[in-house]
Design brief:
Length: 432
């Protein structure tokens, strides 16, 4: 029974990330929020989500195939729709939800190209509804602390940023096993993954990207790269493969109950294989990327993303007219199965050092963090589903469709630059 105080949510896309949202609704935020429907292309995954909801004390909810999205809205009357489908379909459900009178919470990236981005902007303007993008890294205490230092003028005007992100051979490899490996679905890691990182730079600098230049390649994963290193034994997917048993990159879904329930048991419906070989054919995304961005405030970013590093985390340095800020964060890697939410992006180590000109370096105190993604997840969830909502957010961390667009535009322009070898003017691609 819905309470008048509860905001009603429907969720489309019941893969591994969806449980982050529906678990929070069913437990911590059950007094202010309620889930009223699930939607997906796959009934097995929806049934699994319903079983999880029941185990958490939430009533089972009606399920709708994706083709019945409009019917779901008409019958269950959600206030907001949570979109956690594959990236290339985000725009479809965001736009339709807005048209049917709902606000939207969407996983990153908001969408994957300028055309789809334009559709979302037009729908927001036409309907007057709201889109929020779940940039949980904004909420991590160490990232907020850097924002505070820069906003407070600790190093004067920021002139340049060097940002290096490492995905290791557990987490990084996972993008090359699943639907992300096809650039048609994700537009590559510079859009799917780096949207987090480019959003952080936009947030930290309080500025927008102006021009972008990039280079990238598939240098480690894929069959040709493996053959060049002398590999001779290959397999299309891990399940049922003898060769995969000795491959440290193989994902064995049958060893994980939730991967089995979400994907292995659901294959008969849609033929989606979650455990494809990272050294197979058909990979069209890059694993090695370097980007240079000039911002409207004249600061310059040099950025790199490596998806086969020996450790997981990032280093970022800010140079300014009054000194330098350095941050290093080492994260625990994970495979997104819906079963390891407590480990996703949790921390092994984090440091921030402030080096003012002509002064001794200072280790900056960082507030304690609790939970996944460096402590950002729990604060984000409170912002999304808590009774006070955005009132908790004095740091302006809530991200709108404008923020969603600005973050992906760096990646979209980087892809264009890689294809043409030219510097790309962001405003030539999309005007926010």
């Amino acid at each position: 029974m819905t309470s008048p105080k509860q905001k009603k949510y429907a969720l489309i896309g019941t893969g591994g990330r969806s449980s982050f949202f529906y678990s929070a609704i069913a437990t911590t935020y059950k007094s202010s929020s309620i889930l009223v429907a699930l939607c997906d292309t796959n009934q097995t995954r929806m049934d699994y989500a319903n079983a999880q909801l029941e185990a958490l004390g939430h009533a089972r909810v009606p399920t709708f195939k994706a083709s019945a999205f409009d019917l779901m809205i008409a019958e269950t009357h959600p206030d907001e729709v949570i979109v956690t489908t594959i990236d290339r379909t985000h725009n479809v459900y965001i736009v339709r939800a807005l048209e049917l009178g709902c606000d939207v919470v969407t996983e990153k990236p908001m969408t994957i190209d300028a055309e789809r981005c334009g559709e979302i902007f037009e729908a927001v303007e036409r309907t007057g509804r709201r889109v929020r993008v779940t940039f949980n890294y904004r909420y991590a205490p160490h990232n907020t602390r850097v924002w505070e230092l820069l906003r407070g003028g600790a190093i004067g005007r920021v002139t340049s940023v060097h940002f290096e992100w490492m995905l290791d051979t557990v987490h990084g490899a996972d993008y090359f096993r699943r639907w992300h490996r096809d650039k048609r679905n994700s537009n590559g890691l510079l859009v799917h993954k780096s949207t987090h990182h480019f959003d952080l730079v936009n947030f930290w600098l309080h500025s927008r990207p102006s021009t972008v230049y990039a280079q990238g390649s598939l240098s480690f994963y894929g069959r040709e790269n493996a053959e060049s290193r002398g590999v001779t034994a290959f397999y299309p997917r891990a399940h049922g493969s003898e060769v995969a048993k000795s491959d440290p990159f193989a994902l064995h879904m049958e060893r994980n109950d939730k991967l089995t329930s979400l994907y292995l048991d659901a294959e008969h419906e849609d033929g989606y294989y979650r455990d494809q070989s990272v050294f197979g054919d058909g990979i069209s995304i890059e694993d090695t990327m370097s980007v240079m961005v000039r911002y409207e405030n004249r600061a310059v970013l040099t950025y790199s993303l490596t998806a086969y590093a020996p450790w997981e985390g990032f280093r970022v340095s800010f140079n300014g007219t009054g000194g330098r800020v350095e941050m290093e964060v080492v994260e625990k890697s994970y495979v997104n199965s819906g079963s390891e939410q407590s480990l996703e992006g949790s921390l092994e180590r984090r440091t921030i050092t402030l080096r003012k000109l002509f002064e001794k370096p200072v280790d900056v105190e960082i507030p304690d963090s609790v939970g996944a993604h460096g402590g950002g997840d729990e604060v984000l969830l409170a912002d999304l589903f808590g009774e006070r909502g955005a009132q908790i957010d004095g740091d302006m961390r809530a991200a709108s469709h404008v923020d969603g667009a600005l973050s992906i535009l760096t990646g979209i322009c980087a892809n264009r630059s890689m294809a043409t070898g030219q510097v790309v003017n962001v405003r030539d691609v999309f005007v926010v």
